[in-house]
Every structure is written in C-alpha cells, then in structure tokens.
Amino acid sequence: MKKRNRTRPALSLQERLVRFTQNARAAAKNLPAGVERRELLQKVRDGEAAAEMERWLSPPGPQSPK
C-alpha cells in the first residue's frame, strides 16, 4: 500500500499563488508577442483569480489549531 504524503507546504496557498504570478509575469516580459506569451499571461490571470477566490474563502484573522 502506498503511503500518503503528509508534509505541509512551506508557504501558504496565497503566498504560492502570488509567487507563481510574479514569476510568470516576469517570464512573459521576456517573450516576444505570440501564442506562448498570451498563454503565459492567461496563466497569470488565472493565478490572480485563484488568489482572489482564496482570499474570499479564507476566514479573517488567525485560525485555531486543529
């Protein structure tokens, strides 16, 4: 039986999404106009939308330990 991966990410989801969008935007700046750049910018928009949704869904303030 395969063991479950029980490690937690070092960064929160919000931090990972922000970092992803920053890196993708920087990579898109270096690309010439075209399909690849458009797709990368679409991923940036998707990441920003996901970060916004995560902000809406997460409760304000610190959470109690589970």
Give a quick rundown of the structure.
The chain is mainly alpha-helical. The protein is 61% helix and 0% strand.
If helices are DSSP runs of H or I spanning 4 or more residues, what is the number of helices? Answer: 2
Q: Please provide the count of β strands.
A: 0
What is the CA–CA distance across the termini? 27 Å
Based on CA atoms alone, the radius of gyration comes out at 16 Å
* SSE series: HH
What structural class should be given to the helix and strand makeup?
mainly alpha
Shape: extended
Q: pLDDT average, as an integer?
A: 89
Q: Share of helix among residues?
A: 55-70%
Please outline the major beta sheet. Answer: none
List keywords for this structure.
single chain, 66 residues
Secondary structure: elements and pairs:
Blueprint: H1 13-29, H2 35-57
Helix pairs in contact: 1-2
How would you sum up this structure, described in words?
With 66 residues, the protein is mainly alpha-helical. It is 61% helix and 0% strand. It has two helices and no strands. It has helices at residues 13-29, 35-57. α1 (13-29) runs antiparallel to α2.
